[in-house]
């Protein structure tokens, strides 16, 4: 039988790493992508392998279509794609919009939104029963920033995540009859390396639960949406934000 492959982009740290480890524990062959730090990505794959799982790390900038095609070729060489988690994301340097460079805006939109669209397209081409696929699940990592807008910080990042929300909404309806479920997770203040100094603490104080969340808590929500336990769930956007 062909192995069931679980693809997580941006899987070398933070939420992506937690998702990759959780997927391996459930018996998936994991493909994780990384954009820069090969040593760290290989360490994640090595941790999974040491625990008896299967994982490979693939260098890819998801803003570049050729890189995306190479990632999916790696998936195809290993088995049948069962789950895509699009987690790759960047914010760019924080500033008011008036002070942001066009290069920063373009890069964030390309990674966060265009990459999500292209990876989702490639996943559909493999999962859809219309293309003789066996179905599957797509989970897109959005952000509560899509609601708040991140003013004076990075409104372009928030806008990119708003686009991810729209992608979830539209694509879930488009492929629901083709065996594919499409859902999103919107994290709030989560303990990762994405935050600039002091920002996480501010977010944690704003959360009704009065703490920041962990990458593992987000991963648990991702794995639920990817699982058969969520077999009648599509088009959902699950907030993992401590009440924010």
| Spatial gap, N to C terminus | 44 Å
The biggest beta sheet is recorded as: 7 strands, parallel
Q: How many domains make up the coordinates? A: 1
Number of strands: 7
Low-confidence stretches: none
Strand content: 15-25%
Specify the oligomeric state: single chain
Report the helical percentage. 40-55%
Looking at the overall shape, the CATH architecture is 3-Layer(aba) Sandwich
Which series of helices and strands comes N to C?
Answer: EHEHEHEHEHHEHHE
Form type: globular
In short:
By secondary structure, this protein is of the alpha/beta class. It has eight helices and seven strands.
Which terms summarize this structure?
single chain, 244 residues, alpha/beta, Rossmann fold, seven-stranded parallel beta sheet, 7 strands, globular
Describe the structure.
It contains eight helices and seven strands. The chain has one domain (about 5-240): Rossmann fold (3-Layer(aba) Sandwich). Strand 4, helix 4 and strand 5 form a beta-alpha-beta unit. The protein has helices spanning about 15-25, 40-50, 65-80, 100-125, 145-150, 155-175, 200-205, 215-225, and strands at about 5-10, 30-35, 55-60, 80-85, 135-140, 180-185, 235-240. Strands 3-2-1-4-5-6-7 form a seven-stranded parallel beta sheet, sandwiched between helices. About 45% of the residues are buried. The termini are far apart. By secondary structure, it is of the alpha/beta class. Helices cover about 45% and strands about 20% of the residues. Helix 1 (about 15-25) runs parallel beside helix 2 and helix 4 (about 100-125) runs parallel beside helix 6 (about 155-175).
């Amino acid at each position: 039988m062909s192995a069931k492959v679980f693809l997580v982009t941006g899987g070398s740290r933070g939420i992506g790493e937690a998702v990759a480890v959780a997927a391996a524990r459930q018996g998936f062959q994991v493909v994780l992508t990384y954009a820069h730090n090969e040593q760290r990505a290989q360490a994640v794959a090595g941790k999974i392998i040491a625990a008896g799982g299967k994982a490979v790390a693939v260098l890819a900038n998801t803003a570049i279509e050729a890189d995306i095609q190479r990632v999916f070729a790696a998936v195809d060489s290993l088995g049948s794609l069962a789950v895509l988690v699009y987690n790759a994301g960047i914010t760019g340097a924080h500033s008011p919009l008036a002070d942001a460079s066009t290069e920063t805006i373009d890069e964030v939109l390309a990674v966060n939104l265009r990459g999500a669209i292209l990876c989702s397209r490639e996943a559909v081409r493999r999962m859809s029963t219309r293309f003789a696929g066996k179905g599957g699940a797509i989970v897109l990592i959005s952000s509560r920033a899509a609601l708040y807008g991140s003013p004076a910080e990075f409104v372009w990042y928030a806008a990119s995540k708003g686009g991810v929300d729209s992608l979830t909404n539209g694509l879930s309806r488009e492929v629901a009859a083709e065996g594919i479920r499409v859902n999103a997770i919107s994290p709030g203040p989560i303990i990762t390396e994405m935050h600039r100094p002091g920002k996480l603490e501010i977010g944690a104080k704003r959360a009704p639960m009065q703490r920041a969340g962990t990458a593992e808590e987000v991963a648990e929500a991702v794995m639920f949406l990817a699982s058969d336990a969520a077999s009648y769930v599509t088009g959902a956007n699950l907030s993992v934000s401590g009440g924010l």
